[in-house]
Amino acid sequence: MIGLSRASSKLKTEHYFMNHIAIIGCGLIGRGWAIVFARSGYNVTLFDTHPQALDRALTHIGESMTRLNELGLLNGDPKELCNNIVYTESLETAVINADYVQENITEDVELKKHFYKKLDQITKPECILASSTSSIITSVFGFELKGRNRCIVVHPVNPPHLIPLVEISPAPFTDDSVIERTIDLQKSVKQKPILIKKEIPGFVLNRLQAAVLLESWQLVKEGYISVEDLDKTIKDGLGHRWAFMGPFETIDLNAKNGIAEYADTFGEKYRKMMKNERYSSWDDTLIKKITASRRDIISKTDLGTREKWRDTLLAELLVHKISSVKKYGE
Amino acid sequence: MIGLSRASSKLKTEHYFMNHIAIIGCGLIGRGWAIVFARSGYNVTLFDTHPQALDRALTHIGESMTRLNELGLLNGDPKELCNNIVYTESLETAVINADYVQENITEDVELKKHFYKKLDQITKPECILASSTSSIITSVFGFELKGRNRCIVVHPVNPPHLIPLVEISPAPFTDDSVIERTIDLQKSVKQKPILIKKEIPGFVLNRLQAAVLLESWQLVKEGYISVEDLDKTIKDGLGHRWAFMGPFETIDLNAKNGIAEYADTFGEKYRKMMKNERYSSWDDTLIKKITASRRDIISKTDLGTREKWRDTLLAELLVHKISSVKKYGE
Questions:
Q1: A72, A242, A317, B264: which one has the fewest Cβ atoms less than 10 Å from its Cβ?
Q2: Given A259, A279, A329, which is nearest B294 (Cβ)?
């Protein structure tokens, strides 16, 4: 283990002092988490069963750190911050000293249950067991565990080092102190945690995304709009507001007397407008049609380049938003 | 009438040369439209029945132009561009030479029908009659007119000079050439027109907004999340992507093999997740609860200041996006 020194006093909270973070699985999400914790000075141990995946991950992380530094998004030298990350092919070594485990394994219920059973046995009893899952609630993967009170979902947006929102979804059996420490930890690494107060499929972010996607697919299916124009409706329209305001603040500022006036004027209209929506399946014909529209706009071979474009724009938007908050407040 | 000189040759299209724009009604939307056309060099005539409203509008427009200039969003001197705008209290004078009328009167079906009957009589037959309405379709306000073939909805996002999207929604009886000329005109003033191919209540933007709002209110009502945290889900999460990508591009880039793979993985999951949604009314209790949450975050007296904050952030986001597009493409 190398590079374990850091300014630890800064990270102390009144609830609990968390020092060692273990990241399980180093795909896209795991790598992002490693950056999130390492750039804030935490000791990160990265685990994966595939040694090649670990090598690749460290290369990716190094490149991302350099880029973040160029954008002014790092407090410190990128190489030094990378030294906060060590890696191992031994699960036991990765978690034995961990105060917090962030798990990113495959989305499979039985696999997760089995894995958490093991984690529960080999971690310190006070270590928080957090899952990046987007679809398996804490009540499901943690239910049978002796240490289920320390299990919690901590669902990031991809990639977590460029998009700050994190959904915190505890089970009814999760300790309050675990919820508090998890939220504090996320705040200490400059993420934006939100609390899902009762478990629900899709949590909140993917339910909002699903609401938009189901309506979008239906509108294209029924011939009201093209794929390209639908995308413009968000990126050149609603997305300009939603980049820095949520839907409640948006409507609160859109009526002279605030949100109640807006609700009186539009609430029933919207409900009537949408109440006959019965979203049909995204069948093969529709998937082919929408895929063809997308491939007209961008070819399959150009998707990789476009992903890099997206990550560049996400990073630059983050820089822009940080500068806006400094100038005008949040 | 003053200040009618401009570099008209730049604006010529192959379809039709539009020179004189009449803006009917000078509230928030009308003022925004006046800026949109005047900053691109068009001759704008502003009409309102209230002389005080006209005076106030010109003051507001002057201030907005100065601010746009400070942000580098104008091609030209703000005062000179303001000279492209004249105003009148006579409807006939406003529209007699108009090639394009942008109407922004009250959202009332009978009032609109009556008004368009008059417009149809006093405008040149080739003049396009465009409505900013968000709720009354062209088939309704234009149906009985002799010149209904030149009627069309051109629905902006508020404020139009800071958010470029415009929904173009023709009736089946609208001439194709009118649709084309309207789209060309919007492109010539750097707005982003999208075509609603068949009329539908709420067009597309407000249907997507309604989908998000109905789910948001329901989630708060049922106690899954607070108002503040729901807003964060968008502004610190989904909104980071949607500021420059639509929902289709987002999912196309979120699966290794593109949108079809994403649809296979998530399509049915999302449909099942959302299919039991029966959105209840936004009743008084709920409206009071959500209003109280918002008033905890920001007091009623501070709403005006917050609106200015919003417009500043919208303007700065526009500057940021224009610079991003220059550097990285759209």
A1: A72
A2: A259
